[in-house]
Each structure stands twice: as structure tokens, then as C-alpha cells.
Amino acid sequence: xxxxxxxxxxxxxxxxxxxPTPLAEPKRGSAPAVVEHFRLLGRAVAKALQDxxxxxxxxxxxxxxxxxxxxxxxxxxxQVDPVLGASLERLxxxxxxHAAGGGAGPLLVDGCAVEDxxxxxxxxxxxxxxxxxxxxxxxxxxxxxxxxxxxxxDASLGAGIQAQMAAFREGFNEVFSMSALEVFRDDxxxxxxxxxxxxxxxxQLADSMKFDHGYTAQSAPVRHLLEILSELDTSDQRRFxxxxxxxPRLPPGxxxxxxxxxxxxxxxxxxxxxxxxxxxxxxxxxDWSNGTPLADGDLPSVMTCANYIKLPPYSCxxxxxxxxxxxxxxxxxxxxxx
Length: 338
Prior knowledge:
Elements: H1 2-8, H2 25-28, H3 32-50, H4 61-67, H5 74-80, H6 82-100, E1 108-109, E2 112-113, E3 122-123, E4 126-130, H7 145-157, H8 162-173, H9 186-194, H10 202-208, E5 210-212, H11 220-230, H12 234-245, E6 263-266, H13 280-283, E7 301-303, E8 308-311, H14 317-330
Parallel strand pairs: 5-6, 6-8
Antiparallel strand pairs: 1-2, 3-4, 7-8
């Protein structure tokens, strides 16, 4: 159990995108490694953008706004941490209602007095991060609730991440000026850096791909491939793209924008006919354009640096689907199918 817990601590689960963990003031000067990692990240992101390379790095939409120094407020917290954001918004609404009523009586949050929530001036989720001197001993009440909300927002989006964002900007600016990104929206930045997915049709795929070395667009295995790819769901499409290109998303412009162009070539079956059939030297000239059972035991292979698929001429669409699904699901992170 301890080993499993230690292994789990090595991974970050960020369903809403990666964002810096706030650093308490005492830790900001004693965590140079963390800050240097953000400087390196800035260099890597800038170089990827400069070279039109994709990074499988799902940054939170607020990340680049913070890096560019744009003003962030309470409602941006919900994009980073929806649960914390919703809680702060309820507290803020309760404080506003209490102030509108003249401040008389208890300040109620969902019918409960704020003092009964047992909140203190520490960052939610990190009791070691004190929002003020001795914050762990300062209870939140009606007189300081607004100050508490502002302190949490500042820790989450302001002072708590200032050192990391400053290092990211410095690293980025070593490659080119970060001010060039100010013209892009959050969703555009995600597409530029991480690429995008798209719905495929057989005709769109045929127009975007190249077929060579034994295949044409009319070859039966090619038609089967295009139909199979157009039927993939989002997760399997990402697996296929990672298997073939090394990245689970497409560049701006979709599959037609891949450089080099996605190429499909025929892979000769490893199982050759009996001795009275073609010999290895004549196998290359065999007509397998409509598929052959000799290939049904083989797996497709790829050259990710060239976006190059070596596809065996399977005997039917069902066999091809089975072998492709096996390759993209079981062949991740391995050079066995290169």
C-alpha cells in the first residue's frame, strides 16, 4: 500500500488542465528547483511554438492569461478548480447579501452561520499555506470574510504563483517575446500548442493522405483503412495519432496540415506461400492489392518521424480493424512496431 501511494504521488491528476500549485511566501525563496522547472517550461513552450511543434501538454486556459500578466479575479478560480471556485462564489454571494441587508444579524451561507463553517485563514487544500501571519489561528467570521475570499484568490492566481509565472515568462522570452501571444484567445492558444481533434470522413482522409509502394486510393486495404479511421471515437483517434505521429492531436488545419504528409505503404506479409508459390525475391511483385490471408497474422508498423504507415494487405476489413486496434492500444510507448 505504501509503495502504491508513493507511486501515485509521482503523477498529477488535472482534469481541467495543468496550473501551478501556489507557493506559500516562506517557500518561494527555498524552492529554486520548482521555479527553474517553470523557466525550462517557458523555453520548451516557446520553442515548440516557434518550430510549429505540438506538445501534449494540457495547460489550463487560465495559464497563459496569468503568464501574460492579465488581471484575474474570483470567477477565474472556477476554471482552475471548479469546486473551490463554486465555494468562493457562494461565500461572496452570502457576503454581498449580508452587506446589502445592512450587516445586521448573522452572515448565513446556505443557511449556516459562516462561523460554524470552521474556516481559518489558510489556503483550502493546503493547511500549511497561511493567508496571513498566524492564519491557521485566525477564524473566518462575518467581519473578515471578504478579506478571506480576496486572500484565497490572490494565493491561487496572484502572489502564490507569481514566482513560477515570472520564471515561465523569462524562459519564454529567451526564445521570442511573449507579447506576441496577446492576440490569441485561450482556445486558440490550446490549438497552437497542443493541436486539435477533428471528425474524419473517408473522402477527407483520402484527400489528405498519400498511398505508395503497392497501394493506391482504390486498393481494397486502403478503402478499409479509411472506413475504419472514420469510425474511430475520440479516444481511439488520439491513440491512432500518437501511434502514427507521436502526438495525440493534429496541428492547426487538421490531418491535411501534417508535415510530412501521412503516407500509407504496403507491408509485405511475413508468412510467405508454400515453396511452390512466390519466393521471397518475387514476393515484392505479388499482387496483394485486394488483400491476402497471408497478412492476417501481421501487425501494422510506423515511422513516426515521417508520418509513415506500413500496412499489411489484410484479407478483410474486420481483420484489419482488429489488428489496428491491437497495435494502437497495446503498442503505445514501444518501438516494437517501428
